[in-house]
């Protein structure tokens, strides 16, 4: 059982679950959590050296598991109707699909589900175990842990769940814990005119994804699904193939069910659909267009100015005002920031015609960006020298881009692509 009394069973998980990209569970990225949702691997998260002590932590966290957006619910409903009305065949999984009831409604529209509440409650407990001097009852009650969130329901409720996880862990009852709603930072992509005009609202910016949706690889997936359902090839578009994939992914993420929808895919099909979503994320949130990462400069400056402030407080011999900052956003918040910092960059961009050679790509959202994905930046004071460590989903991450620009020896982070110089970034900060 988890702290909350939920009986955690080891579910029968579809083999293709590791290809669910941004619709994937956190447990698929860290499978040891399936047996113990509160397990942490402290050996992975050790301080740079013995004389170092952690002085500040910023965690930028994607919301927990959620319902499909209305856009996708409509497509899932269309596909379900197609199968019920047109599919023939007597396989047991097909009979189960025919008996399956469409329970998703438009009003769900991406809202947080109960599993998403647990994602954040349990993540809060694990981070407090990993960083007990920063995420502690005293720091929380002294107001030294700050919370910030996107205004979206899934993010506000994830923030409340994270806070509830700490309150329950420390038997803190009936205490309101504050949080700040700040879309300028957590939804910066809505506020960057150049991104909105040149990418978000410009279909040609997604040309590579559109071309892949008409590729031989995608066509083969569509034909195989049609063959399994015994329906005409013309009925299974790339959108319908994606909707089927979503039905399988959401039944696992929300209900921990290996649903009959998953029988429509083999591993080869899942790899193609995974690549299609990675193309979406690469060109809309990643390295595809410079403005994608540059739009996150406002968040980069917010994070590093806080590290700056903590460093100066330590240097002046005073206590650090903010021990920890918990910022809850979207995949669309984290992916541009990870790109800005140079993480998961491949030597060759992802395009519609190099699926075959991108099989070992670094930019793979199934491993980077599940529900509750989290980038944690920890600042250490090592006898007067400052060290910064990064973790993604509770695993260490080496700074590629920034350290490289400092001759690989660390130092104040160069501004990876942001215009406004950072005021005196923590001199001597080693990455
Ligand atoms: O395909 P959907 O509608 O689910 O896309 C969502 C985004 O979900 P994701 O692509 O990341 O799985 C959603 O990101 P999230 O982190 O909030 O889940 C985003 O907020 C929403 O606007 C949709 O993105 P899109 O780019 O507008 O399709």
From TrEMBL:
SUPFAM superfamilies: Phosphoglycerate mutase-like (SSF53254). Disulfide bonds join 52-382, 248-262. This is Multiple inositol polyphosphate phosphatase 1. Transmembrane segments: none annotated. Residues 408-431 are annotated as: Disordered. GO terms for cellular component: plasma membrane. It catalyses: 1D-myo-inositol 1,4,5,6-tetrakisphosphate + H2O = 1D-myo-inositol 1,4,5-trisphosphate + phosphate; 1D-myo-inositol 1,2-bisphosphate + H2O = 1D-myo-inositol 2-phosphate + phosphate; 1D-myo-inositol 1,2,6-trisphosphate + H2O = 1D-myo-inositol 1,2-bisphosphate + phosphate; 1D-myo-inositol 1,2,3-trisphosphate + H2O = 1D-myo-inositol 2,3-bisphosphate + phosphate. It is an enzyme of class 3 (hydrolase). It is found in: Cell membrane. It holds the Pfam family His_Phos_2. Belongs to the histidine acid phosphatase family. MINPP1 subfamily. Keywords: Cell membrane, Disulfide bond, Glycoprotein, Hydrolase, Membrane, Signal. One of its GO terms (molecular function) is inositol phosphate phosphatase activity.
């Amino acid at each position: 059982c988890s702290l909350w009394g939920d009986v955690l069973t080891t579910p029968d998980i579809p083999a293709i679950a590791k290809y669910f990209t941004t619709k994937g569970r956190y447990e698929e990225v860290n499978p040891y959590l399936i047996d113990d949702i509160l397990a942490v691997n402290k050996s992975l998260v050790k301080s740079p050296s013995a004389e170092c002590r952690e002085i500040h932590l910023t965690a930028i966290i994607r919301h927990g598991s959620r319902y499909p957006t209305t856009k996708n619910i409509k497509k899932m409903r269309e596909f379900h109707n197609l199968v019920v009305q047109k599919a023939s065949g007597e396989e047991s999984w097909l009979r189960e699909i025919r008996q399956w009831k469409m329970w998703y409604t438009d009003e769900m529209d991406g809202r947080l589900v109960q599993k998403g509440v647990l994602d954040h409650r349990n993540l809060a407990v694990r981070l407090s175990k990993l960083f007990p001097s920063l995420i502690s009852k005293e720091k929380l009650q002294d107001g030294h842990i700050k919370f910030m969130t996107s205004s979206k329901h899934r993010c506000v409720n994830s923030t409340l769940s994270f806070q509830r996880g700490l309150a329950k862990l420390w038997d803190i009852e009936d205490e309101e814990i504050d949080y700040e709603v700040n879309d300028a930072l957590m939804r910066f992509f809505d506020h960057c005119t150049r991104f909105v005009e040149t990418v978000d609202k410009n279909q040609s910016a997604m040309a590579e994804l559109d071309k892949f949706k008409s590729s031989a690889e995608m066509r083969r997936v569509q034909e195989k699904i049609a063959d399994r359902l015994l329906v005409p090839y013309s009925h299974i578009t790339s959108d319908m193939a994606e909707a089927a994939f979503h039905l399988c992914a959401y039944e696992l993420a929300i209900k921990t069910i290996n649903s009959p929808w998953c029988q429509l895919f083999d591993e080869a099909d899942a790899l193609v659909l995974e690549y299609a979503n990675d193309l979406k994320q690469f060109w809309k949130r990643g390295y595809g267009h410079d403005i994608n990462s540059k739009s996150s400069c406002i968040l980069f400056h917010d994070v590093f100015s806080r590290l700056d402030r903590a460093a100066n407080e330590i240097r002046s011999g005073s206590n650090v005002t903010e021990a920890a900052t918990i910022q809850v956003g979207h995949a669309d918040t984290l992916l541009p920031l990870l790109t800005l910092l140079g993480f998961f960059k491949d030597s060759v961009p992802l395009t519609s015609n190099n699926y075959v050679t991108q099989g070992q790509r670094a930019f793979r959202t199934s491993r980077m960006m599940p529900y509750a994905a989290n980038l944690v930046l920890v600042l250490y004071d090592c006898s007067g020298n400052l060290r910064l460590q990064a973790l993604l989903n509770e695993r260490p991450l080496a700074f590629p881009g920034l350290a490289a620009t400092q001759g690989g020896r660390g130092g104040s982070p160069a501004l990876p692509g942001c215009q406004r110089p950072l005021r005196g970034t923590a001199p001597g900060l080693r990455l």
